[in-house]
Design a protein that fits this description.
Distance between the termini: 32 Å
Number of helices: 14
Strand content: 15-25%
Number of strands: 11
Structural class: alpha/beta
CATH architecture of the largest domain: 3-Layer(aba) Sandwich
CATH class of the largest domain: Alpha Beta
Largest sheet: 11 strands, mixed
């Protein structure tokens, strides 16, 4: 909490470009104590999809007389693995990007120091999944099925209103999804089906999808830009597992101004999975005071209002205003699927293995 990180090939290019200013992939040593206001470097470990405006970081640096160095460390799982392997000699002071699909693992490894930021008072309790305040929520996004508006209009085909509808003959061969063993949105969509159908029923649903011509690819880029008809216009599938913010991105990055997004999101009951991304102060930091200030800054309005058009996810601070593009073009599910992080951690590998045995030839 994320995706989604919310996360897209085209978006990712823009994100990495936005990240470039004032950031480095070479970790500065977090071993030297740097009192707030006395210069030095605060090191922040992130997943590769992290982005924030250069001026937002510059403001924190100026206000605290410090340099912030970012260390991109792969996708969420890879970054977490790296943090765990280095926990006896942490590579950074702060870690951002662990989401609710990996949260229990991070907490079990005792990665984070507890910190009850005063900014938590501005964040709804539903986002606070760690009662000990070791991992604090920063943003959220929903993995949903996106659809090509033109395809459904031209074929006079009603939109699926439930996961069950997707196994019907009207939608045969129309859906492309990512392998949950290799893709974050693929895993999130698998979790949505487990929450909706239960552990006793989700594999039957996937068998139904497979029998109905489901197309499976390994990654989001292939699904969205090769198979999906709604972005490039060349793919054969008008339904794709993606993000609720993807229609916003289509508008933001369109070559010509658009009055309507060319794609939409299916946001019916438990058709989406909500990812929440967290930040924590790494156990072993010598810069705890500065780290606390940075966490507060991430949760405050200035940082939160910059998040949507940088990472295409939603801010958790209820006082943060959304950009016009999100207000106009994004659809937010009223009842997204969510699973307890401990349940996910205990069952993730078994669920994915069972999925592969059921769906893959």
């Amino acid at each position: 909490m994320r995706k989604y990180r919310y996360l897209i090939a085209l978006i990712l290019l823009a994100l990495l470009t936005a990240c470039a200013g004032g950031q480095t992939e070479t970790p500065a040593s977090p071993g030297e104590t740097v009192p707030a206001g006395e210069g030095g470097t605060l090191t922040v470990m992130t997943h590769d999809s992290f982005a924030i405006s250069e001026e937002v970081i510059a403001r924190f640096e100026q206000e605290n007389n410090v340099t912030v160095a970012f260390v991109p460390s792969g996708d969420t799982g890879s970054a977490l693995n790296r943090a765990i392997l280095a926990k006896q000699n942490p590579l950074a002071d702060v870690f951002y990007g662990v989401d609710n699909t990996f949260l229990s693992r991070a907490l079990a490894e005792d990665l984070f120091l507890p910190y009850e930021s005063p900014l938590l008072a501005q964040i709804p309790d539903a986002f606070e999944l760690d009662p000990e305040h070791r991992a604090l929520p920063v943003d959220y996004g929903d993995v949903c099925i996106n659809y090509d508006r033109a395809y459904f209009a031209e074929n006079n085909l009603p939109l699926p209103e439930s996961l069950e509808d997707l196994t019907g003959p009207a939608y045969e061969g129309l859906l492309v999804a990512e392998n949950p063993a290799t893709s974050s949105p693929g895993l999130a969509f698998l979790l949505a089906t487990i929450e909706h159908f239960g552990e006793d029923g989700y594999l039957d649903f996937w068998r139904g999808l497979s029998d109905n011509g489901l197309v499976v690819v390994n990654d989001w880029n292939t699904a969205y830009y090769t198979n999906f008809s709604g972005s490039s216009g060349a793919g054969p599938q008008p339904l794709v597992v993606s993000y609720a913010s993807s229609p916003v991105a289509e508008v933001v990055f369109a070559e010509q101004p658009l009055d309507e997004a060319p794609t939409g999101s299916l946001v019916g009951d438990q058709m989406c999975f909500r990812q929440i991304e967290f930040v924590g102060i790494l156990n072993g930091t010598q810069n705890e005071e500065l780290a606390r200030r940075f966490v507060d800054y991430m949760l405050d309005v200035t940082f939160q209002e910059d998040i949507p058009l940088q990472m295409f996810v939603w801010p958790v601070n209820e006082n943060a205003a959304l950009p016009e593009e999100f207000e106009r073009f994004a659809e937010v599910p009223a009842n997204p699927a969510q699973l307890d992080p401990a349940t996910i951690d205990a069952n993730r590998e078994a669920w994915v293995q069972a999925w592969m045995e059921t769906v893959l030839p």
